[in-house]
Amino acid sequence: MTQTDFVKLVLPFKDKVYRLARRLLVSKEEAEDATQEILIKLWNNKEKIEDYKNVEAFSMTMTKNLCLDRLKSKQAQNLKIVHSNYQDHNLSLQKQVELNDSVDWVSKIMEELPEQQKIIVQLRDIEDYEFDEIAKVLEMNETAVRVALSRARKTIREKLTKKHSYGIK
Amino acid sequence: MALNNIEQLLEKYDNAETSLAEEAQIRAYFAQEEVPAHLESYKLLFQYVSHTKQEQFTKDVPLQPKRTKVYQWISVAAVAVLMLGAYFQVTQMNQTKTLDDLSHEQLMAYNQTMEVFNLVSTKLNKGSAHLGALDLVSTKLNEGAENLVYVKEFNKATNKIIKNK
User: Fold this and answer.
1) Which end of chain B is more exposed for a tag (fewer CB within 10 A), N or C?
2) Neighbour-count burial of B12, counting CB atoms closer than 10 A to its CB (0-12 exposed, 13-18 middle, 19+ buried)
3) Can you name one GO molecular function term for this protein (chain A) (predicted)?
């Protein structure tokens, strides 16, 4: 497999790997490091890659495991929490600030979720994975995925509503 | 989309029963500017979702082609072969073979050759025993040659007598 083939193979899901890493590790730099490591691992095992039916699902599982390991390890103590700027030039400054703030809430609320729910929400709501794909990535059954997702969505909405109406009611 | 409809969808969404297509519908609905006040919190969520979707991995990944290590191992193998060759050469030179090391056939061949050599040597000894006679002849000859000295002396004596006459 040449470098071009590899890039072609990896291109569709490298951003997904990054976003999942970002979701779990929070820090941008950490997520970039993790993604890089995953891609290099894939590259080093490029002979075996062709045997896998679903490279994307396999990579997502690898990412999940790597990030959870990182969180557990001592390295996690050096995690930096960096938030990115969400920009939308169509909105007025007032609205933009407001929006940034509230969008930040969502990401903060998501950070409070248990790891597994984080991964599920990430894969379903952001990457649009089917339930059976998520089940494959996480090595659990579909029903459990649905239950966890429902729980996560409810938690997010509850907290969001609470924050949103803070000071109003 | 009717408010009624979206509320139903949202309920399904909360229970994680929506399909991907339905979720896309919900997202499309919340992408518009105005939503009812009680759905405001959902709007934030879906805005966040669509923002996050655009995040990209921009860092470069250094992909180094794996160096083939075969050549390195070939040299190692060559050195090993050389060393083994030298080792066996030396040991073979030092090794002295005794009769015990020989196989049965080799031993037979050895014994047969030894017998032949023995036979030849006994015949040779017999022949050399006869040489004793020759030896005797030669000593007799030497004795005879010594006696010739007397004949010379006799000659001198006769010459002297003839001169004196």
Assistant:
1) C
2) middle
3) DNA binding
